[in-house]
Amino acid sequence: MITTTGLTKVYASRGREVTALDGVDLHVREGEVYGVIGQSGAGKSSLIRCINLLERPTTGTVSVDGVDLTALAGRGPRAGKELRAARTRIGMVFQHFNLLSSRTVQDNVELPLEILGVTGRDRTRKALELLDLVGLADKAKSYPAQLSGGQKQRVGIARALAGDPKVLLSDEATSALDPETTRSILQLLRDLNQQLGLTVLLITHEMDVVKTVCDSAALMQNGRIVEAGTVSEILATPGSELARTLFPVGGEPSGADRTVVDVTFHGDAAAQPVISQLARTYNIDISILGAAMDTVAGKQIGRMRIELPGRFEENVVPIGFLREQGLQVEVAGEEPVLVKEGAK
Amino acid sequence: MTWSEMQPLLSQGCWDTLYMVGWSALIAVAVGTPLGVLLVLTDRGGLLQNTPVNKVVGFVVNVARSFPFLILLVALIPFTRMVVGTSLGAEAMVVPLSIGAIPFFARLVETAVREVDHGLVEAVQSMGGSTWTVVRKALLPQSLPSLVSGITTTIIALIGYSAMAGTVGGGGLGALAISYGYQRFESDFMIVTVALLVVLVVLVQLIGDLIVSALARRGTGRAPTRLLGRPRPRTAEAEPAAS
């Protein structure tokens, strides 16, 4: 649905060049919620602004729903008619909502419809429908200043949906909101994704956002995507940095001559009493250094760091047993095999 | 001088002043607004970034603004004669007054429009809006309160200028104050004309402030000022996020 190839963005300021994007290949499938996570300065904002060409990429191409936007853009700095038409089919929500304070909630939602040339009763009807969809039907005549942050973002979302877009870009949409409101906004995005088949690309610096709503995720560092894939793939990737940050398990080994093993449970395996089986079968003492259970992308996932007595060589058999149970096992200290999909 | 002698002079003077100020304010707003917007758009990082245009327009505006109004008035006499056919009277004064006020107002527009959050520009662009749409739907409506207070300032400056215009045969209250009050030592007359000018300025400022506060109040949920009637009950209040 959204594909970028070799996207670079270089800002020239006062003779110095700053590379914000350094060859980004992104692939977002139709109907999924895709999260790009990274620290500030990693290039996330530049990336999402390059998708609808609010920023012109220095090199590389962007295509959304099969349309090559970079080709539509032309050479000049101004957006031509075709690019503007394409933008009406890409919704965007912003961290600071960017609502017009001089217009009522309803008029804010009508703004994109005015641009599309929808008039009169159709425009009003559509705007009210959208407000109803985001649960703000009773606030149509209010002004943005009278709303809470979460309500403002709902208006922002309603406005972004006015052109019946297939793609919604979310630029840190929940970063200015408190945790509870964040959850309700994410739930709304999830619902819209499922009800309307909307493809959502969101950028965020909050791991929780990715954990809660994303089907796929990518980790950005220094203008590059260093890891990408579906959330379950990422969690199944040994040595994945994204998996570790998404799902940290702490705990230091209690001494030398111990083997530390990270075990990840997926789906059914999460419900099996594997650890007690292991202890009984091999008659060994197992200490649990850290453990966590969570729901990621709607699936139960557990991660546990355990410690077995003796060196790795002495524990080959028990570790093999764990692997046989269909668990993902990583032994600390061993060089993990990196599988990085879509990374560059 | 008796009141019956003063009265027709004063009403004519008032009318002339209002005529000069009204028309020139109208022209200043009509020409100054696009000029001010142009200054913002063509600036570095603007939507229509164009350094040569920006520099030229900025320079013209600066030059026009640094002219003392009296000099501008005299310098423009041939031009005024060409446009209006005469350089005397209220009608003729509209020309130099407008030309003096345009760059003044353009700078005020520039400052007001520059204040608009860039995020709003981005939002309109992301909806597929053109630069013209950005100006029409975001930049101007969002800066409307500042624009209105700019108009107020401009009108008041014009009232001052129009009094000056009296010295070169422009008519209006300023001319009366000078020819009757100053040159004929009619202190009563002087006091009345000055008082009228003061009333005019205070009135304009008051109306301007009322409009600005009415515009700025939109959306803050505060009750309207009592000056305009009974306070309305608050209909929609901020409340915690739904769901």
Automatic annotation (TrEMBL), chain A:
Q: Which GO terms describe its biological process?
A: amino acid transport
Annotated Pfam families: ABC_tran, NIL
* Superkingdom field: Bacteria
Q: Which segments constitute the ABC transporter domain?
A: 2-247
Gene3D superfamilies, from UniProt?
Answer: 3.30.70.260, P-loop containing nucleotide triphosphate hydrolases
CDD domains from the xrefs? ABC_MetN_methionine_transporter
Give UniProt keywords alphabetically. Amino-acid transport, ATP-binding, Cell membrane, Membrane, Nucleotide-binding, Translocase, Transport
Q: Which GO terms describe its cellular component?
A: plasma membrane
Q: Which PROSITE patterns match?
A: ABC_TRANSPORTER_1 (PS00211), ABC_TRANSPORTER_2 (PS50893)
Q: Which InterPro entries match?
A: AAA+_ATPase, ABC_transporter-like_ATP-bd, ABC_transporter-like_CS, ACT-like_dom_sf, MetN_ABC, MetN_ABC_transporter-like, NIL_domain, P-loop_NTPase
GO MF annotations in UniProt: ATP binding; ATP hydrolysis activity
**SMART domains, per the entry:** AAA, NIL
- Sequence similarity: Belongs to the ABC transporter superfamily.
So what does this one do?
Part of the ABC transporter FtsEX involved in cellular division. Has ATPase activity.
Subunit organization: Homodimer. Forms a membrane-associated complex with FtsX.
Protein's name according to its UniProt entry = ATP-binding cassette domain-containing protein
Give the organism the record lists: Streptomyces beijiangensis
Source species taxonomy: Bacteria, Bacillati, Actinomycetota, Actinomycetes, Kitasatosporales
